[in-house]
Design a protein that fits this description.
The complex is a heterodimer.
Chain A lengths: L1 E5 L3 E6 L2 E4 L12 H10 L1 H14 L3 E2 L5 E2 L8 E4 L17 E4 L4 E2 L4 E3 L7 E3 L2 E7 L15 E8 L2 E3 L9 H5 L5 E2 L4 E3 L10 E6 L2 E7 L7 H11 L7 E3 L15 E6 L4 E7 L12 H7 L3
Parallel strand pairs in A: 6-18, 8-14, 9-20
Antiparallel strand pairs in A: 1-2, 1-5, 1-15, 2-3, 3-4, 6-7, 10-13, 11-12, 11-18, 12-15, 16-17, 16-19, 19-20
Chain B lengths: L1 E5 L3 E6 L2 E4 L1 H4 L7 H10 L1 H15 L3 E2 L5 E2 L8 E4 L17 E4 L4 E2 L4 E4 L6 E3 L2 E7 L15 E8 L2 E3 L6 H5 L5 E9 L10 E6 L2 E7 L7 H11 L7 E3 L15 E6 L4 E8 L11 H7 L4
Parallel strand pairs in B: 6-17, 8-14, 9-19
Antiparallel strand pairs in B: 1-2, 1-5, 1-14, 2-3, 3-4, 6-7, 10-13, 11-12, 11-17, 12-14, 15-16, 15-18, 18-19
Helix pairs in contact in B: 2-3
The chains are: A alpha+beta, B alpha+beta.
Chain lengths: 298, 297
């Protein structure tokens, strides 16, 4: 099932080329607003799945291309990002030490939205295309062998990154990763049964039609079960929390004013973003070889 | 006003040595969780709730504080932004270090009388960091320093419990463990605090005074913190910004410890510490970290 928010944050399910509004099926779920509705549905999904499926099978939708899609998780409880978690197309013989950071949950934007690059003295802004994993039930101290039981689904995410800010030698992820609008998510939240092998997802990202990133989650360093075991050993993860699984740095490149970004994982749809940067700074276009070589140890 | 959650997460306010039950006044709020409730109370405090609470407080008979269980006043804040190394270390540093922060997991929060659980991981030591917590009152995005005060709803005591030596310089590993965010006992509204840059912060471990410093020693002051943090992250009602600690006086927390923190005017918070591995560290001030952060070695 592909869950979406559309128009005025109506909850919907994708049916072929249409979106079916399922607001009626979830109307008695307590919520503050769209920000927490999806998380609360995920928490109770087993109780609601049948009613949703019934509505989708009988209901008529509206064409997807006639609606405004919104981020499927407009305000996750937490966004936890894995740092440096790929073998860089097998260049590294073993994973780097496991690490992660929390990213601003208020930075989420959706399909068709705009990433605003701040007027901060960065060396460059990068796109990091990643697989996003959505937690399905409360996860505390989960063993790797049980980790897949805690996954609700997957979504496309981009960990937009500002380089060169913050004190050297310190964890400066806050300034690197958490700016307003730096967490594009979507267009859909795809339930886990639709993803045959999460460790073989094909991730692609284009800037102005040129392909930049093109890699598989098979190259991941710490695999999904280990990631959930580690993350949940520290902080309890809740339904609707999102794990950004890290990026393969081979293919990263600059983002700058006027860029059109498209990103997608096979089976998860594609998200489209605009880039706005008021200072109109310019960086080299194309793949940034220096970061790729550095991370790969070349 | 001092707001609390007590017993089965009823909202209350402190009146002398009693708690006045406010739950009848906030039943109208659509709030799936206690945090959602307090977020709305904060958002609509001036327009709706302050006057009603005060009126209730005048006529109501409170329940003695000693007869209730006090919980964290912000049980699961939307975001906890924590300032890193933001004190001049009793003036040892001539200027603030470069401004920096990290997120602490909202799941880390515990309240008065609860227990910090030290995880069975090979940290070199676990430290208490007594801090002043600022509670955001209205949405703050790109707020200039001279407007920052308008976005402050109130203050809380906060202990940024910290694990050292895990994952290099990783704040997630160091700071975000469940139970590593003792907070409370009360949420004190801003009108009760005359000068937030002149508050004494004290922390005791087993009645031994460890930290004892004043927020006047803060490096980047509160208006600048809010300006800077809100330039990056939109802060919302009920979010918390903790202002960092003075490292002079940090020490170990370990199994069996009773830890208390009291910032002037914010009440005293007590938590216990449990470490199933029963590891032992020196039960005193850790001079090494104090000297290192102050640049003395």
């Amino acid at each position: 099932m592909k869950l979406v928010f559309f128009n005025e944050f109506n909850l919907g399910v994708v049916k072929g080329q249409d979106v079916v509004d399922i607001s009626e099926a979830v109307k008695n779920i307590p919520r503050v607003g769209p920000g927490d509705l999806m998380s609360r549905l995920i928490e109770r999904f087993d109780d609601y799945r049948a009613a949703i499926e019934a509505l989708v099978s009988t209901g008529s939708g509206v064409p997807i291309d006639s609606v405004r899609l919104r981020a499927p998780l407009p305000k996750p409880g937490k966004i936890l990002c894995m740092a440096g978690n790929y073998l860089e197309n097998g260049t590294l013989t073993e994973p780097r030490p496991i690490n992660g950071f929390l990213k601003n949950r208020n930075a989420v934007i959706g399909d068709g939205d705009t990433v605003i690059l701040p007027p901060a003295p960065v060396t460059i802004f990068h796109h990091e295309a990643e697989a996003g994993l959505v937690i399905g039930k409360k996860a505390s101290k989960v063993k790797a062998a049980d980790a897949y039981d805690y996954i609700f689904g997957y979504t496309n995410v981009i960990d937009v990154s500002a380089r060169g800010l913050g004190p050297e030698g310190m964890d400066a992820f806050f300034m690197g990763k958490s700016w307003h609008s730096f967490a594009p998510i979507g267009p859909y939240l795809v339930t886990a049964e639709e993803v045959p092998d999460p460790q073989d997802m094909h991730i692609q990202l284009w800037v102005n039609g040129d392909i930049r990133q093109d890699y598989s989650t098979s190259d991941m360093g710490h695999k999904i079960p280990e990631t959930i075991e580690w993350a949940s050993s520290i902080a309890t993860l809740n339904p609707g929390d999102v794990l950004f699984l890290g990026t393969n740095h081979q293919g990263l490149g600059s983002l700058q004013d006027g860029d059109q970004v498209e990103m997608g994982i096979e089976g998860l749809g594609r998200i489209h973003l605009n880039i706005n940067e008021n200072l109109k700074r310019e960086w080299a276009r194309g793949v940034d070889r220096s970061v790729a070589d550095r991370i790969a140890g070349r | 006003m001092k707001l609390v959650f007590f017993n089965d997460n009823k909202l209350g306010l402190i009146k002398d040595n009693t708690v006045v039950d406010l739950s009848g006044l906030v039943g109208e709020i659509n709030a799936p969780t206690p945090q959602d409730l307090i977020n709305t109370v904060i958002s609509e405090f001036d327009s709706r709730y302050r006057a009603r609470f005060l009126l209730e407080s005048e006529s109501a008979t409170g329940i003695p504080i000693k007869d209730v269980n006090i919980h964290a006043p912000l049980p699961k804040p939307g975001q906890i932004v924590a300032m890193a190394a933001n004190y001049l270390e009793n003036g040892a540093l001539s200027e603030p270090r470069p401004i920096n922060a990290f997120f602490k997991s909202p799941e880390s929060v515990i309240g008065n009388g609860e227990t910090v659980v030290i995880p069975p991981v090979p940290a070199t030591i676990f430290h208490h960091e007594a801090e002043l917590g600022i509670v955001i009152g209205k949405v703050a995005e790109n707020v200039p320093a001279d407007q920052a005060e308008k976005h402050i709803f109130g203050y809380v005591n906060f202990i940024d419990v910290s694990a050292r030596g895990l994952g290099g310089v990783s704040f997630y590993w160091g700071k975000s463990w469940d139970t590593f965010g003792p907070m409370g006992p009360y949420l004190v509204t801003a009108d009760e605090i005359e000068d937030d840059q002149n508050l004494q912060v004290k922390l005791w471990v087993n009645n031994q005074l460890r930290q004892d410093y004043n927020t006047s020693d803060m490096g980047h002051k509160i208006p600048r913190i809010i300006e800077w943090a809100s330039s990056i992250v939109r802060l919302e009602p009920g979010d918390i910004v903790i202002c960092g600690t003075n490292h002079q006086g940090l020490g170990a927390v370990q199994d069996g410890d009773s830890v208390e923190i009291e910032t002037e005017g914010l009440g005293k918070l007590q938590v216990s510490v449990r470490d199933n591995l029963k590891r032992a560290w020196p039960a005193s001030v850790d001079k090494e970290i104090g000297d290192r952060v102050a640049g003395r070695n």
